[in-house]
Design goal:
Length: about 260
Amino acid sequence: MNNTVLNIISSIFCNAAEYLLIAARVIMLRKVIKTRSVSGLSLKTNLLYLITYCLRYLHLRHWFRYSWRIIYANIIKSIFIGYQTVMVFFIFYKYNKTYNKRYDNFPITVLLAVGGIVGLLVTRASFWSYYEELCYNISLVLESVAILPQLVMTQETEDCESMTGHYIITLGLYRACYLIHFVILRMQRRGIDMFMIITALVQTGLYIDFFYVYYSYVFTNKESGINIERKVKEEKNKNEFGFGEMQGLNSMNYTKRV
């Protein structure tokens, strides 16, 4: 397969990943607005994503310097930043009464410190580009572990009401498309930074764990619901049988008296 075809396929999967991520964000935002609840959502995870995007997209200040393709990419990046800003606002202020702050207790400062230290260790850029390269590397670390507070919170509270199956599936497809994109880049033997691959694998591993926790919760609740429904039916049948039996006994007693 020649490089031209691989480039086209790689672009398709890269764009698909971006659109799937946007779709997942829209699904979540719509659910929060519709239910007026952020129950089960982690403020710290959303803060980490907001910090990640702000660090990574520092070049957005050069909005109109480049081609229309760059402007399009900047619009997509602005959507990510805007979404995270809105979600932080919803959790921290607008729907704060439904926010489970007690269980959102993962030490976010540890993740920020680790991100900063790792970023300093792996950054090897020249003086003029060092700052942006450092911020980019820190953002890679933070993005790879940003789901951790949400994962821990979900495990502790077993509250997945704010997350729909569509949201989880869309996130899974987003990660799958990005992995395929990376594989194609490796097939083309392009210079992909090993650090980027490691952070992507860490993020994928945490996402898999998160999906497992979510679907375990869903299937457990579904099974519990089926069992409860079965018990209700059994109790109803017992009551009906008991009522019929009592009626029969009463009629027999009445006959004897007569």
